[in-house]
Design a protein that fits this description.
Elements lengths: L10 H6 L8 E10 L2 H7 L6 E10 L18 E9 L9 H17 L4 E3 L3 E4 L2 E13 L2 E10 L16 H4 L7 H22 L2 H9 L7 E4 L7 E6 L5 E5 L2 E5 L6 E3 L2
Parallel strand pairs: 1-2
Antiparallel strand pairs: 2-3, 3-7, 4-5, 5-6, 6-7, 8-9, 8-12, 9-10, 10-11
Helix pairs in contact: 3-5
The structure holds biotin (BTN).
The site of biotin has 20 residues, from helix 2, strand 3, strand 6 and strand 7.
Length: 265
């Protein structure tokens, strides 16, 4: 595995590359080891208009969606979470995870000219293999909504025997590109901070067009956990970020928390 020790996570460097509004404050903590950056922020006190960001070189209990674990070996990947307190209701966040995936895609394109793909709702792919995922968790605290956005990206990982699906890393697909994890984290946080304000005012519908241009599921045969016996074809998304699917020729809507979905080859 490539030695990235000389480029370890560095709090000052991440902060120095942030490009955010003056009214947004970022409170950043960087750990060598943690159980899970999401779990840490779920326990931490949060404030309105402050982004609490927690990044780690490794996680001992990294968590993925659907109760799965997230492989988090040392010094090779990106594991970080952003937590903030909002005045909104949970339903105002419909489609937000798609926006986070779009922001990661945007950051990779801007910094490294990497064209990644997004599989609805928020898996990041390169050459049909997953390299990144997003875990969004929420909690109500004193009538405010705490949201934690957890992001895991395989950056320099070359080998892992514990992942039960086809996976890749940014380095495996782009060996000639030198990726700086600090700058990439900074850019992703900046993109999310910028888009969160727009999203909270206008919702997912403003970003839907961008997503539809790159919706890799569109018109593909898919396996949908809730309709495992049926023939399912994915269609487009709705203004709330839900996905339309044809289930045995009948149009239905599914939301991200509701189903697990695989492309059928
Ligand atoms: C997925 O299953 O696709 C989502 C994976 C999310 C992993 C990230 S790594 C940083 C943050 N902390 C966690 O425990 N999980 C998320």
């Amino acid at each position: 595995m490539k030695d990235v020790n000389e480029k370890s996570l560095n709090r000052e460097k991440i902060l120095s590359f942030l490009d955010i509004n003056q009214n947004q404050r970022v409170n950043l903590e960087v750990f060598n080891q943690i159980d899970s950056t999401n779990s840490y922020l779920l326990k931490k006190d949060q404030e309105i208009d402050v982004f609490n960001v927690c990044a780690a070189e490794m996680q001992t209990k990294g968590r993925g969606r659907s109760g799965k674990s997230w492989e988090s070996p040392k010094n090779s990947n990106i594991y970080f979470s952003i937590g903030t307190l909002l005045n909104e209701k949970i339903s105002d966040l419909d489609g937000f995870s798609i926006l986070v995936a779009l922001d990661i895609k945007k950051a990779l394109k801007k910094l490294y000219e990497i064209n990644s793909q997004i599989k609805w709702p928020n898996d990041l792919y390169l050459n049909e293999k997953k390299f990144g995922g997003i875990l969004i968790e929420t909690k109500i605290i004193n009538k405010k909504l705490l949201i934690i956005v957890g992001i895991g990206l395989n950056v320099y990982m070359e080998k892992n025997d514990f992942i039960d699906q086809e996976w890749t890393s940014l380095h495996l697909e782009n060996p000639s590109i030198e990726i700086d994890r600090n700058i990439l984290i900074s850019q992703i946080v900046s993109e999310i901070a910028k888009d969160l304000n727009i999203f909270l005012k206008k919702g997912f519908k403003v970003f839907k067009k961008d997503f539809e241009k790159i919706n890799i599921l569109k018109n593909k045969k898919v396996f949908v956990s809730n309709y495992s016996e049926a023939n399912c074809i994915a269609l487009d998304t709705n203004d709330d970020g839900s996905l339309n699917i044809l289930v045995d020729n009948v149009k239905k809507r599914v939301s991200s928390g509701e189903v697990s979905l695989k492309i059928q080859k």
